[in-house]
Design a protein that fits this description.
Copper resistance protein NlpE, 2 helices, about 140 residues, Lipocalin, Cu-R_lipoprotein_NlpE, signal, alpha+beta
Length: about 140
């Protein structure tokens, strides 16, 4: 009887934790631009299997080079609405994937289910810290 109860408890905890992380999974984007001068786009994909991919594109008038693409990938985990990113430098970094997301964390922000007001809160990730200096403070919005 103890074995059955323990097994059921473990299954329930596993399902609850996987359901929570699946609510974080998805595509997040952010576009910043000033017509004719510059364009910056971020795209972050959190996969349900705990992996992520990131793409940053920038096009600057008078920039050298004028267009830059940067990529990152690795693993993510969630605890208490905070997403933590990790990168295995041997497996995840190469000529294409150069961004090191180690020491990066983002808060998952959404409207509180108890909030019954008409206030619209767009679901987003807000980067609280990052080893990539320009990522700290960036918001990316769920598509």
């Amino acid at each position: 009887m103890k074995l059955i109860l323990t097994t059921l408890l473990l299954i329930f905890n596993f399902l609850a934790s996987s359901a929570q992380s699946s609510s974080f999974a998805g595509d997040y984007t952010r576009s910043l631009s000033e017509k004719g001068k510059h364009e910056i786009e971020y795209k972050l994909t959190l996969n349900p299997d705990g992996t992520f991919e990131f793409h940053s594109y920038s096009k600057m008038q008078g920039g050298v080079p004028p267009e830059v693409n940067k990529y990152g990938k690795g693993k993510w985990s969630a605890k208490d609405n905070v997403i933590t990113f990790s990168v295995d430098k041997k497996e995840d970094l190469n000529e294409k994937y150069t961004l090191d997301f180690n020491n990066s964390a983002a808060r998952f922000v959404t409207k509180n289910p108890r909030d019954k007001s008409d206030k619209i809160v767009q679901t987003k990730l807000k980067f609280l810290e990052s080893g990539i200096f320009w990522m700290k403070g960036i918001d990316v919005f769920k598509v």
